[in-house]
Amino acid sequence: MADQENKQELKAGQLNIELSEEMAEGKYANLAILTHSHAEFIIDFVQIMPGAPKAKVKSRIILTPQHAKRLLGALNDNISKYEQQHGAIQDTDPNQGIPMNFGGPTTQA
């Protein structure tokens, strides 16, 4: 019975998406690394800690090229809407590289 209801929802153009509490909390990332092959795009979301020599991948998303292009369009649309409400987002100097100490002192153990 539930399968039939799900099929009817999909036929009507609706999709029921579940979001667990753990997933809803999200993962913080301050770096994204993108790579691709002929068949897929891979986005690794990384959290870098100030002064730490290592960083951890917090999440990896693998997309088809078509979905990657849709994601790009959705990001462009949302950034445009954000900037209309809040002003232009200022980008950092691309020649500066990854800030390993975030402007503060390095950590010590």
How would you sum up this structure, described in words?
With 109 residues, this protein is an alpha+beta fold. It has a domain at 23-87. It is built from 3 helices and 3 strands. It has helices at 2-11, 21-25, 65-86, and strands at residues 31-36, 41-48, 55-63. The chain has a 3-stranded antiparallel sheet with strand order 1-2-3. The longest helix is centred in the C-terminal third of the chain and has 22 residues, at 65-86. The radius of gyration is 19 Å and the shape is extended. The mean pLDDT is 85.
Biggest β-sheet: strands ordered side by side in the sheet = 1-2-3
Which class of secondary structure composition applies to the elements?
alpha+beta
Please give the largest β-sheet.
3 strands, antiparallel
Beta-strand percentage range: 15-25%
List the helices and strands and how they pair.
Blueprint: H1 2-11, H2 21-25, E1 31-36, E2 41-48, E3 55-63, H3 65-86
Antiparallel strand pairs: 1-2, 2-3
Briefly summarize what is shown.
The protein is α+β, with helices and mostly antiparallel strands and 109 residues long. The protein is 34% helix and 21% strand.
Features:
single chain; 109 residues; alpha+beta; three-stranded antiparallel β-sheet; 34% helix
